[in-house]
Write a sequence for this structure.
């Protein structure tokens, strides 16, 4: 909204300083500062409100050090992240940008699902919260919306290099994405179905939309599993989101896209402002969530974080890089899958279930080994930074 206001003031009255809002870097800097302030100022009020309505976390006794002390800590702190992101985004971005619209829809959609889950767990004393099938239906529906929009919307385009390598061709609709580490690193989802004949590519959405559904569901659940100790999910997510913001800036700048020989995606640079606001909100939330946590994000925050990361990766055509960039989410997911699968397998074969880890997800395994949760979080952050650097290096290693 402020973007349009200052654009009008510049156009109509040449208002001093109004032209600054036309610069992406200025709006991104304002967004990250604004989101930090919003989160910091709203944080205490939201925590006080959650305490007033007795929205405290009920802790199961898992035999972990310091676990009992966390009982009653307010949850649903993800509201801080949502408001801290949306307020600067609504004020500072171009709201007619299709990528910004998709990210706003994702934030609200996943926030509502997570809020319903947290509310049922706390106020209705239902340990399961929102039934798994309803949660999955919500994630699948969002995946359909995102996938269909990216596939059919005329504003979702790319520009590719001409054969001479000196210029970019005109904008074209495409569902191409990027394969890390390969020289000719573009992959078209239509190739999967192209063998069926010339007209088969018209039905590439049958491949693309299910792929989007899988990505949105997997990443949002991965972020949910990672949210288990103070500061872990918010810290690792902010590193991944910042990296995706750099990809968006490069892919949306024709000069850098040309220099790095990457896919140029018109209008995607506006996503950088959203990323700045989101990172600011995550860091602001960490002010209250760092050990010992004054508030937990709950599913309200973790599902929203995962959904946003998935959509960001899809928007900048880097979804195949998710296993590397979101490696912490991946290993947390895998640890649960392996633990459950091995337990069921050994119980069926030997009559008594055995476990690979002392506890899953993986961060609880290290807690059982005696590591303090602050040390676990710090080391997971370091791993997340290393994975982010590897992801950025793939821009040149092809």
């Amino acid at each position: 909204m402020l973007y349009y206001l200052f654009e009008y003031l510049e156009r109509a009255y040449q208002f001093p300083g109004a032209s600054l809002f036309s610069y992406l870097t200025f709006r991104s800097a304002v967004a990250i500062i604004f989101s930090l302030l919003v989160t910091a100022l709203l944080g205490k009020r939201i925590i006080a409100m959650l305490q007033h309505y007795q929205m405290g976390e009920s802790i199961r006794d898992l035999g972990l050090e310091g676990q009992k002390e966390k009982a009653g800590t307010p949850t649903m702190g993800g509201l801080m992240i949502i408001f801290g992101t949306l307020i600067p985004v609504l004020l500072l971005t171009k709201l007619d940008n299709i990528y910004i619209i998709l990210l706003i829809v994702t934030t609200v959609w996943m926030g509502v699902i997570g809020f319903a889950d947290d509310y049922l767990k706390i106020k209705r004393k239902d340990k399961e919260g929102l039934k798994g099938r309803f949660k999955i239906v919500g994630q699948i529906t969002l995946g359909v919306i995102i996938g269909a929009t990216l596939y059919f919307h005329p504003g979702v385009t790319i520009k590719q290099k001409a054969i001479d390598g000196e210029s970019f061709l005109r904008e074209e609709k495409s569902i191409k994405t990027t394969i890390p580490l390969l020289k000719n690193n573009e992959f078209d989802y239509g190739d999967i179905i192209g063998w069926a004949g010339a007209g088969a590519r018209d039905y590439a959405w049958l491949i693309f939309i299910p792929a989007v559904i899988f990505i949105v569901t997997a990443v949002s659940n991965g972020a949910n599993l990672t949210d288990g100790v103070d500061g872990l999910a918010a810290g690792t997510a902010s590193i991944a989101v910042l990296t995706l913001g750099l990809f968006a800036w490069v892919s949306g700048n024709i000069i850098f896209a040309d220099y790095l020989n990457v896919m140029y995606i018109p209008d995607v640079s506006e996503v950088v402002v959203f990323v700045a606001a989101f990172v600011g909100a995550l860091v602001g939330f960490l002010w209250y969530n760092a050990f010992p946590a004054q508030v937990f994000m709950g599913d309200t925050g973790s599902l929203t974080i995962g959904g946003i990361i998935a959509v960001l990766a899809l928007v900048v055509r880097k979804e195949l890089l998710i296993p590397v960039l979101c490696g912490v989410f991946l290993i947390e997911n895998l640890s649960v899958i392996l633990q459950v699968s091995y337990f069921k397998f050994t119980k069926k074969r030997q009559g008594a279930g055995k476990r690979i880890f002392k506890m899953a997800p993986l961060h609880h395994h290290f807690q059982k080994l005696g590591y303090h949760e602050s040390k676990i979080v710090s080391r997971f952050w370091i791993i997340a930074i290393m994975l982010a650097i590897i992801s950025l290096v793939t821009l040149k290693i092809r």
Remarks:
- The chain has one domain: 26-393.
- The longest strand covers residues 176-178.
- The chain has 14 helices and four strands.
- The CA atoms of residues 92 and 292 lie 34 Å apart.
